[in-house]
Design brief:
With 98 residues, the chain is an alpha+beta fold. The chain contains four helices and three strands. Helices cover 38% and strands 21% of the residues.
Length: 98
């Protein structure tokens, strides 16, 4: 079975929060950490995975991403803190194979 993910990345000081969707979370986090693509996350050094949720299909993940993006920062912070109260990098210890 294949899964899709809605996820949030932040920088060292938690000053920005990026919300995205992917079907390969490990690969996508690796791309953020290595700044493989120029854009928001590379510009603002969003290299820390602080939230993710798994879905059984991409449509559900996209719908949830839109819901998160429509909310304000306080709602994003609440969602992150419920799953990850210390805002640790959830990808610490992952072995990245591309």
């Amino acid at each position: 079975m294949f899964f899709s993910y809605t996820y949030m990345m932040t920088n060292f000081h938690h000053t920005v929060i990026y919300t995205g969707v992917t079907s390969n979370l490990v690969k996508r986090v690796y791309q953020h950490k290595t700044k493989a693509f120029k854009g928001f996350t590379s510009k603002y050094n969003c290299e820390k995975l602080v939230y993710f949720q798994e879905f059984s299909n991409i449509s559900e993940a996209i719908d949830f991403e839109k819901k998160i993006k429509a909310g304000n920062r306080a709602k994003k912070e609440k969602l992150i803190s419920e799953q990850n109260p210390k805002w640790k990098d959830l990808s610490d210890g992952w072995v990245f194979i591309v």
